[in-house]
TrEMBL record:
GO terms for biological process: peptide transport. It is found in: Periplasm. It comes from Camelimonas lactis. Belongs to the bacterial solute-binding protein 5 family. CDD domains: PBP2_NikA_DppA_OppA_like_9. PROSITE patterns: TAT. This is Peptide/nickel transport system permease protein/peptide/nickel transport system substrate-binding protein. GO terms for cellular component: ATP-binding cassette (ABC) transporter complex; outer membrane-bounded periplasmic space. It comes from the Bacteria. SUPFAM superfamilies: Periplasmic binding protein-like II. Residues 88-435 form the Solute-binding protein family domain. One of its GO terms (molecular function) is peptide transmembrane transporter activity.
Amino acid sequence: MSHDLARAPLASMLDRRAFLALVGAAGAATLAGGSALAAEPKRGGTLRLSALANPSSLDPATGGSGFDHCYLWTIYDTLVEWDYDTLKPKPGLAKWSFPDPKTMVLDLQPNVKFHDGAPLDAEAVKFNLDRNRQDQRSNVKADLTSVEDVVVTGPLQVTLKLKNADTALPAILSDRCGMMISPAAVKTHGAASDRNPVGAGPWKFVSWADNQKVAVTRNDNYWRKDRGFVDAIEFNIIPEQATGLRSVVAGQNDMAFALPARLKPVIQRAKELQVVSAPTLYCIQFYFNTKRKPLDDLKVRQAINFAIDRDAFVRATMAGLGEAATMTLPKSHWAWSEAASKLYPHSVDKAKQLLEEAGLGKGFELTVGSYTDQDSVRRAEVLQEQLGKAGIRLKFTRGTVAEISANFFNQGYDMLLSAWTGRPDPSMTYALGFDKGAYYNASREATDELSDLIRRSRESEDLKERAAVFDRIQQITMGQALSAPIAFQYELDALSPKVKGYKPDLLGKPKFEFVSLE
């Protein structure tokens, strides 16, 4: 018998935006069918997963792919955690407080050790935070621009001195910036830490065979006993998701996650499988390098946005299991901007007019990075046809997620067709994607006004005040067409009947800390 664990939106019970404002989070949903955590989970066994992409790095500071998180969360604990349904921050390795707007104090859990036996103490946290914001190889500097200094104020206490108030810091420390890596391991391995990760999470690193498998094993000294139930996890890297799903049907793997909507009927026909479906912040989009001609012309970027038929894209590539994206946040988000959402109604005629004004009325070609899996190819074909109607020809280069993404962000193509996989706080999305010098901003440029607004979006804890700032931010990022959001993809996972305790989260990036095997 099929077990459907689909999360139903709370909008049927109350106004969704009102609920999100109430909880101060990016989204909400409920998990139907009860929780497998009610019973005492069984310990032991190896959880075998079909994973879409090879990691870009297993060092949280240096990776460049949003797909890395499913690996990283097994190896690393974070200073702050978030609620699965709402992304509201809660204590993890640390509890936090703000004695004043420019001071954040972190009080650490005692007796926590890294996998190499070194203590996870205040000195280790200072090392990590300083490395994240200062190291040449760090890709998360933009998250910590508000931090002036990190001071050890006790064996288990760290104080962050801030340049300005930053209420997003708890959420920021629930992501890559809050993943603690062993200082001793970094000093030993240097740049090779990318492939020799040493954290303090529920599992410790065993091996990584490129484009084949990543393996982790239980951390017997893990400080929390209410999670980390399986003895080991094997990520079997299968870029073609239909093949990954077949591996679950055949019993070779226990779970395939982030599946495309076209495979939902296949899951449902395999009646023994569990189905998980839930809304996420996962946004498929065109990333632009606005330094490269002709994308340095605003009219060209706007023309691309007008040429995209987002509703048709959702129908053609997601079987309707998604939402047209008019900005980098979904309509249910508390920081969604109605004004920004109206900027680009689908119009081929408007796109052609703008290209005429830009001197490109006869058509032109853009180079685009994309991936080899069937769904990426289908998305590319649909967009190729849509933009072609306006005279915009797309020339695709395809490869693995890690390779193509790295090439684009190192100035390899005009555009990248990929996803923004979401962050716990919207200020992180705009800082990492659009601020000056940010890794995911291929041009590395931003106006002083936009940078100032991103900083201001973190000053207040009042959601209405923050939403007003984000309204202006989104009118700038969309008005200047700094990207072309296309659609939000819902999470879709297939699980074997023996997998218990899995729960989806709003980021759409799976965690396995509560999973057990029957």
